[in-house]
């Protein structure tokens, strides 16, 4: 906090005198103190409605201080094009594992797993794991594709997040049946 520095004494060039204290209609404190009030969010709403100019100052202030507090305001301000803080880091490509079933012969089918490498998973290791786990053939068949002999798609929804906790069940997409 910069408040810890010695406070300037005497009239300040950038302050108008007499100093006008604005009291908040929500918590009845001077608005500078609203942030310490448990109903700060309500205070801000009151401010926005009644003293939009002061509200703007507040928003800018809190945007400097804390990005988190500003997030709400950003959302509100976005339309006006006044966003102060730039959008956070972008996602570096979608991370998703896709599962699908493909026919093999007349009655059998294979399970195709793609996208594991988006989670930086070694495909060879994964393929071997699937083979052992399902006691069936499994092989790396492409840049980011593993084919497991047998229909194990449903099991994979449980097994993949279990084996690789960084893969959320929600990031596994069921592509259904592939036609070949
Ligand atoms: Zn208040």
TrEMBL record:
Residues 69-98 are annotated as: Disordered. Pfam families: DENR_N (PF21023), SUI1 (PF01253). It comes from the Eukaryota. One of its GO terms (biological process) is formation of translation preinitiation complex. GO terms for molecular function: mRNA binding; translation initiation factor activity. SUPFAM superfamilies: eIF1-like. This is Density-regulated protein. It comes from Laodelphax striatellus.
